[in-house]
Amino acid sequence: MFQSPLASGAAFAPVRLVALALIALCLAAAAPSPAKANPKYAGIVIDANTGETLYAYRADSQRFPASLTKMMTVYMMFEAMEQGKLRPNTPIRISPHAASMIPSKLGIRAGGTITAENAIKALITKSANDVAAAVAEHLGGTESEFAQMMTRKARQLGMSSTTFRNASGLPNSRQVTTARDMARLGIALQEHFPRQFDMFSTRSFRYAGVTHRNHNRLLGRVRGVDGIKTGYIRASGFNLVTSVNHNGRSIVAVVMGGRTGASRNAQMEKLVAQYFPKASRRDRGPLIARNGSTNFAIRGASIASIPLNRLPIPAFTDRVAEAAPAPAAPVVAYAPTPQPRASVDPIVTATAESRSGWVIQIAALETQDQAVDYLRVAQARAPGILGAREPFVEQFVKSGVTYHRARFAGFASKSQAWNACSALKSHNYSCLAYQN
Fold it and tell me: Where, by residue number, does substrate bind (predicted)?
């Protein structure tokens, strides 16, 4: 923040004071500045040609996705169409459960149907919650089962900080994501379904005699914007994921937690205006593989190269652990099932670095008991990876708050630790590897 030299008692000529004031104004206008008093705000801009992070603010902090959830619902529909499980004219039945959803909705009565193609348009434009629930039941049997399918797909795409509990984004304290994960999903939609992605640019959708406008007001107003999705619930604030493609450049930008739709849109326009010209025109090819591997480090640093004192403070919402920086801490809701204790006892609790060599961390939790249980569950679920490792809990204090790192020691080399982290992905764990 610019500080006038007058604060230190220096005397300056009026002309110089004017110059300093102009410099301060220029600095203030140089970068998009989210409202500092808004704790819900998070944002990111990713170069979709290279994977480079052009801008990030609390991009790895947990947020509620709201109707950004429907991006994954649509992803699942696109994939089902490619697999022959859905056709554009496939009828999707509206169950009593789907019909009971609160607005925004199309209002189709229970027993009615909508074609898959119209369902996609309804999700993209109207953000219809009744249609989202109907799609979930059609593809997953139940909405809760479909939500598990969505979460598994998120893990395959590298969205390690996202958990879905429903198909619409209606309030659920355990349905969480991050701005970075939403950017990753936006890029995946473009890369994996280039023909279908054009549907996100649909400005309006007419159904049963009613025209529904797309909630994304940047379409047609900001050059190059071709999607993707808006979202709002009271807990999340106003969210927006935006894709911009023009003249060889391509970005995906995310704004979460806006106080109003207008302020959210204004912030997005600022991000696009500043960072789109900085995007590369060189396309590196696909950035996100469908099988879970990625061709670029979206976080911009290897997991072993981040100093411990730069780790973000873990935050907790309904006992869900916040993401660690690279890759993220597990985002599975904290609800460990009882496991045999003998195989992992004793678990050491330390207040300082107590292990030498390579160590991995799988979570940072509020209490020692949570961390201990988390380690037990992990070792029971992945005995081939963690059975011979030494679990321990390490306390650390940040801003007067104590947290507990759930960690495993006993790795003889960097490759052993990194291989363990990679293998834990198949068990829906992410981890941080480092050397003491």
Answer: 229
Average pLDDT on 196-205 reads 92
Q: Which residue has the tokens 């940047």?
A: 218
CA distance 411 to 226: 47
User: Quick check: is 263 catalytic?
Assistant: no
Name the nearest CA neighbour of 361 among 424, 294, 271. 424
| 229 among annotated binding-site residues | yes
Quote the CA–CA distance of 230 and 208 in Å, as a whole number.
23
- Separation CA 432–CA 304 (nearest Å): 7
CATH numbers and ranges of domains, the chain: 42-278 (3.40.710.10), 308-435 (3.30.70.1070)
| The dihedral sign for the CA sequence 9, 13, 14, 19 | negative
- Which listed residue (61, 95, 104, 127) is catalytic? 127
> What backbone phi and psi angles, to 5 degrees, belong to 369?
-60, -40
- Give buried/exposed letters for 54-75 (b at 16+ CB in 10 A, else e): bbbbbbbbbbbbbbbbbbbbbb
Residue 348, number of CB atoms within 10 A of its CB: 13
173: left (phi over 0), alpha (psi -120 to 50) or beta: alpha
Active-site annotation holds for 70: yes
DSSP 427: G
163 neighbors 63 (Cβ within 8 angstroms)? no
pTM value is 0.63
Instruction: Quick: pLDDT tens for 239-261.
Output: 999 999 999 999 999 999 999 99
Q: Which residue in 67, 95, 168, 236 is the catalytic one?
A: 67
- The C-alpha atoms of residue 240 and residue 66 are separated, in whole angstroms, by 10
d(CA 400, CA 381): 34
Spell out the residues 6+ positions from residue 385 whose beta carbon is closer than 8 angstroms to its own: 420, 423, 424, 427
Is 127 annotated in the active site?
Answer: yes
Query: pLDDT band at residue 355, thresholds of 50, 70 and 90?
Result: low
Q: How many residues does the chain have?
A: 436
Q: Which residue in 40, 61, 70, 168 is the catalytic one? A: 70
